[in-house]
Amino acid sequence: MSKEVRVRFAPSPTGPLHIGGVRTALFNYLFAKHHNGKFILRIEDTDQTRFVEGAEDYIIESLKWLNLIPDEGVGFGGNYGSYKQSERKTIYQKHIEELVAKGKAYYAFDTAEELDDLRAKGEDAKEPFIYNWSTRNQLKNSLSLPENEVQSLIEKGTPYVIRFKIEKDRTILLDDLIRGKITIDTNTLDDKVLFKSDGMPTYHLANIVDDHLMEVTHVIRGEEWLPSMALHELLYEAFDWEAPRFAHLPLILKPEGKGKLSKRDGDKHGFPVFPLEWKTDEGLSKGYREEGYLPEAVLNMLALLGWNPGNDQEILTMDEMIAQFSLEKVSKSGARFSPEKSIWFNHQYIQQKRPNDLLPEFNTILQTFGLEANDELSLKVIELLKERANFVKDIAEQGKFFFEAPSTYDEKAVKKAWKDDSKEILEDFSALLQETDFTADALHQAMQTFVDTKEIGFGKIGMPLRLALVGALQGPDIPVIMELIGREETTKRIKSLINAQS
Ligand code: GLU
Question: Does ligand 1 come within 6 angstroms of the Cβ of 15?
């Protein structure tokens, strides 16, 4: 039997999760479920300078809202914990010592100022400074200094970092599941810092130690990590570990097509780029959840950013996505984000919902309008208006008048609808209503009979009546409105319009 597939989503809690990150989580989830494997959440919080309060909870809440529930991870249990890197310091310490003992890593005592100085000089000379085989012997490290000096520097508590010793003159062959084969010349790589004097590993060390210990089989992550792939392969080799397979996902591009989708694009055009709202002192960034998107719609939209099932099916259930997902069908080129398409997906998913599913959100929105919800009426209004809605809030906006009589009448509509004979027509019709069954069919019939007997055009009754019921010349079929609000309320609204116009 082949090894169980184990993948991880490994965000750093440096702020709210961007939808690019959510897409990474989703692709990991789909891949895991497709292979009956495990989806792990690991929090990569070793860089304390970038730590943001609340970000970890935000990540977990986002995954829960989207129903991308990890099989293991921070907040979800599992046998490979802790899944939070700041709680694994001793593990990294032990592993970095192993690399130093093997001669694969070395202590470096160069100060930040010294290195800045070298970088500045390199820039001036148009020969960028790089800490590697070509420079390391002239710098302050355990490869260039005598052993006793290194010992005494460490004993004195001189700050140091531990760097990876990248071999010279090697060509590394990489094989990415999405990008294919890539060759890298090790002479272009620098001796990356693996461990810092604050006792913390850098991302690179912690990431590969954890992927190994957590038995991760496939690393599926954003394209921005592709440049680290050679280093990671070399680290696995240095430890004598088998490396996982790598797959680097394409970027999510701005709606205009060029460049990576950013928070600023969302702010500029007013669409969310975060799953949940995120508040900071600088302001509030919109969230898909708070904007009224359904999690299923967000997932479906994201799934098709860079992947497609190989046909033109656009609406896929989670089960269908799982069944059809494969990394071979993930594209190499960036995927353009479309705010309009996101809305379209939400529209599609709203149509699939039964009124009952939308009821709680609908009632909550009504309450924010200061209106009293009424489940029976709410359900009918949802059923009636859903077809044209992109969001539940659209139904509430357009259906407000079902829950409260108009308090003002649209001026233009009054001009168009209110004529000298409107009062009399409405009064006569109102009298007829007292004897009509309050079903849409009977009401429709009554209106027809009314215009036939009076020998008037339909607009003569239709327009003022609609104005009375809605306050404007819009909304669904008049008989349907009357049926839903009932005889008493219909009569009342007709009276109010007559009063307002007299
Ligand atoms: N912590 C990295 C990030 O924030 C994870 C990259 C990876 O998946 O290896 O994106």
Answer: no
Q: How far is the CA of 231 from the centre of ligand 1 (A)?
A: 14
ipTM of the complex: 0.98
* Single-letter code of the amino acid located at 148: N
Asked whether 225 lines ligand 1 (CB < 6 A), one says: yes
Q: Which of 406, 412, 410, 351 has its CA nearest to residue 383?
A: 351
Angstrom CA distances, 366 to 326, 363, 476, stand at 43, 5, 19
Cβ burial, residue 339 (10 Å; 0-12/13-18/19+): middle
Mapped to the 3 state alphabet, what secondary structure does 204-252 carry? HHHHHHHHHHCCCCEEEEEHHHHHHHHHHHHHHHHHCCCCCEEEEECCE
* Tens digit of pLDDT at every position of the chain (502 positions): 578 999 999 999 999 999 999 999 999 999 999 999 999 999 999 988 888 999 999 999 999 999 999 999 999 999 999 999 999 999 999 999 999 999 999 999 999 999 999 999 999 999 999 999 999 999 999 999 999 999 999 999 999 999 999 999 999 999 999 999 999 999 999 999 999 988 899 999 999 999 999 999 999 999 999 999 999 999 999 999 999 999 999 999 999 988 999 998 998 888 999 999 999 888 899 999 999 999 999 999 999 999 999 999 999 999 999 999 999 999 999 999 999 999 999 999 999 999 999 999 999 999 999 999 899 999 999 999 999 999 999 999 999 999 999 999 999 999 999 999 999 999 999 999 999 999 999 999 999 999 999 999 999 999 999 999 999 999 999 999 999 999 999 999 999 999 999 8
Nearest to 153 by CA among 141, 162, 164: 141
CA of 109 to the centre of ligand 1 (A): 28
Indicate if ligand 1 lies below 6 Å from the C-beta of 207. yes
Read off the tokens for 131: 């800490």
Count of CB atoms situated within 10 Å of the CB of 271: 19
Give CA–CA dist 124/139, Å, rounded: 19
Angle subtended at Cα 247 by Cα 246 and Cα 250, rounded to the nearest 5 degrees:
150
Ligand 1 atom, smallest distance to 21 CA: 10
Determine if ligand 1 sits within 6 Å of the CB of residue 11: yes
**Residue among 27, 50, 203 to mutate when testing ligand 1 (max atoms within 8 A of CB):** 203
Find out whether 325 and 307 touch, Cβ atoms under 8 Å: yes
For residue 35, report the distance from its CA to the centre of ligand 1, in Å.
22
